[in-house]
Amino acid sequence: MPPKASKKDGEPAERPILGRFSSHLKIGIVGLPNVGKSTFFNIVTKLSIPAENFPFCTIEPNEARVHVPDERFDYLCQLFKPKSEVAAYLEINDIAGLVRGASAGEGLGNAFLSHIRAVDGIFHVLRAFEDTEITHIDDTVDPVRDLETITQELRLKDIEFVQAKIDDLEKAMKRSNDKQLKIDHELCQRIMTHLQDGKDLRLGEWKAAEIEILNTFQLLTAKPVVYLVNMSEKDYLRKKNKFLPKIHAWVKEHGGETIIPFSCAFEQKLVDMPEDEAAGKYRQEGKTYVVQDGDIIFFKFNVSGGGKK
C-alpha cells in the first residue's frame, strides 16, 4: 500500500459530515418571519405562494422540486443512452418563521421545528435590509440577534429531544444488559453536554460509529447550514452592507459555514422581467463572475450589459 499522505502543518482537520447521502436532498428554508423566505422560495421554484407582510403567512410548509443541472449527467446519458434518465433534484421546503420561544411552543413553534427535523439541510435566511413598510417581529433589524434567536431555539429543541432519549435509555437499561444501550446512553450524555455548552452538533468532533447513531436522531443542530443574507437591491449591486461584517464575524465564530449575500428584491425584478429584457440588461450567456471574500460569495452583475445571473 502507498504511504498515507501526511497533513500539512496548521491545516485544519476536516469536520465529519452528518446526515444522509443522496442525489435527492431536502432543504428547509428557515428564519424569522418577514425576512424573505417565501419570496426566495418563489424565485427559486418559479411558483407563486403567498408572501405577505405579517408573521406566520406560511403555516404548513410549501414544497417544490428544483432540477439540478449537471453537464456531466447529460454527457453520460448521451454516451451510454440508458433506458431511463433520473437527474438529481433538490426538494425545497418553505418552513414558517420561527420566533423566540418556539422550542416551548411559541408561534406554533413545535410544529415548525418538526418540519425542520424532516429536511437534510438548512438555508438560513437573514434580513439585512431596512424597510419601514415591512415589519420586523422584534421591531428593529439586527441579523446577529436573529441568528442568536434561531440557533438557540434549534439547540433548545435538541436538548429537549436528547433529554427524553436519555430518560428512555435509562429505563431500558434497568430492564436489559444490552451493551448497545450503554453506548447510546454515553453518546447522548456527550451530546447533551455539547448542546448545553452552546455548541451546535454539526461542529463537534464525532467518531464514525457515533455519527451512525447521531444520524438516526435527526437533530436540528446537526444539519448543515448555508446562510443567505437578504439585502436591498442597492446594497447588493454595490456589494456593501452595514450588517454583513457583523454577520461574517458571527458565522466565523460559529463554524465558518458559507454565507451567500443576495437580494430578493433584485432577483424578483429579474423573474418578473420578460426573458429577452433580463438577458439584455443583466445576463450574458457563458460568463459567470464570482467574487469571494473569505466564505462570503457574491454573484456579480454588470447592470450595463454584462454578467450572468
Automatic annotation (TrEMBL):
Q: Name one GO cellular component term.
A: cytoplasm
Q: Where in the cell is it found?
A: Cytoplasm
Q: Which UniProt keywords apply?
A: ATP-binding, Cytoplasm, Hydrolase, Magnesium, Metal-binding, Nucleotide-binding
- The keyword Chaperone is assigned to this record: no
Report the principal subcellular site.
Answer: cytoplasm
Alphabetically, the GO molecular function entries are: ATP binding; ATP hydrolysis activity; GTP binding; metal ion binding
**Could you tell me which SUPFAM superfamilies the record lists for this protein?**
P-loop containing nucleoside triphosphate hydrolases (SSF52540), TGS-like (SSF81271)
Q: Which InterPro entries match?
A: ATPase_YchF/OLA1, G_OBG, GTP-bd, P-loop_NTPase, TGS-like, YchF_C, YchF_N
Under CDD domains, the record lists: YchF (cd01900)
Q: Which cofactors?
A: Mg(2+)
OBG-type G domain mapped to chain residues: 25-283
The reply on keyword Cytoplasm is yes
NCBIfam families xrefs: redox-regulated ATPase YchF
Protein name per UniProt: OBG-type G domain-containing protein
Native species: Triticum aestivum (Wheat)
